[in-house]
Amino acid sequence: MAADNHEFTRFEDEYPIVVEGLVNRFGDQTVHEDLSLKVRQGEILGVVGGSGTGKSVLMRSIIGLQRPSEGEIEVFGNSITDAEPDEAIGVRSRWGVLFQGGALFSTLTVGENVQVPLKQFHPEIGPDLLKDIARYKVMLSGLPEEAANKYPSELSGGMKKRAGLARALALDPELLFLDEPTAGLDPIGAARFDQLTLELKETLGLTVFLITHDLDTLYEICDRVAVLADKKVVAVGTIPELLETGHPWIEEYFNGPRGRAAQASQARDERRKAQSRSRSMDKPTQGKA
Ligand SMILES: Nc1ncnc2c1ncn2[C@@H]1O[C@H](COP(=O)(O)OP(=O)(O)OP(=O)(O)O)[C@@H](O)[C@H]1O
């Protein structure tokens, strides 16, 4: 039946990333076996799992850098697994990636690093506009404007991450892939990076695929968390939903000493926010009877 005045949400709009039956093998080693995952539009999906469970391989498969042994991956409804490199070019411009360690070109300044994807996908843009866009992306990532003229070797670890983020944002992506963005940052730097990720997601309407070992990040900014274990995604959901599964790795991860500390810290944050909300509501409003 034809539906009038109904707004249809297409499947690929609701789930910009769909992975089905993914298998990744390296020689005798099977990293993924029948792995499936759907990422929802507009969410920050945290991806966790023990070391070597294949989180980075999963990300590399989704962005077309690792051809899987079997399975199907669609991004925005486009098959990544079947596409020839040239065919995928359109969809590639709709995502940005922050690799572990930033993966910046050491012989280019930060601004020039940001210009790399712009030049690749938009050769029509002239040098002045390229510089302006790069400067804007640098500032959007929370770096001072002058950082655009610095080389990666002149930056701290936290600044390098932000520079990598600026490059990931170069093409105004709808999807952002972050591979361990807070690894190696001090707790204050990590919390700031988390807040930046959240703000960018909210203001730019991004969907974020975020690989992390950082429990604070999971509690603070992730809408859902996908758990890799036993060669597949064993559960996806909010942290309370994950805990209901009773999976031994999930139990140990979230209920271990670090998990409990992160949980307690989030509960303290929530209390502080509630107190400050109620204090601001109690304040007498000037000029009102
Ligand atoms: N190109 C490759 N060739 C051979 N083996 C690989 C390749 N890439 C990854 N692997 C193997 O696949 C497994 C999963 O690697 P991956 O880097 O995805 O793990 P991870 O979950 O991201 O780990 P970590 O949390 O330590 O970063 C590892 O055993 C790794 O050695």
TrEMBL record:
Keyword Nuclease: no
Superkingdom of the source species: Bacteria
Residue ranges, annotated region (Disordered): 258-289
Assigned keywords, A-Z: ATP-binding, Nucleotide-binding, Transport
Alphabetized GO MF terms: ATP binding; ATP hydrolysis activity
Occurrences of domain ABC transporter (ranges): 17-255
InterPro entries on file: AAA+_ATPase, ABC_transporter-like_ATP-bd, ABC_transporter-like_CS, P-loop_NTPase
Keyword NAD set for record: no
Protein name: ATP-binding cassette domain-containing protein
Lineage: Bacteria, Pseudomonadati, Pseudomonadota, Alphaproteobacteria, Sphingomonadales
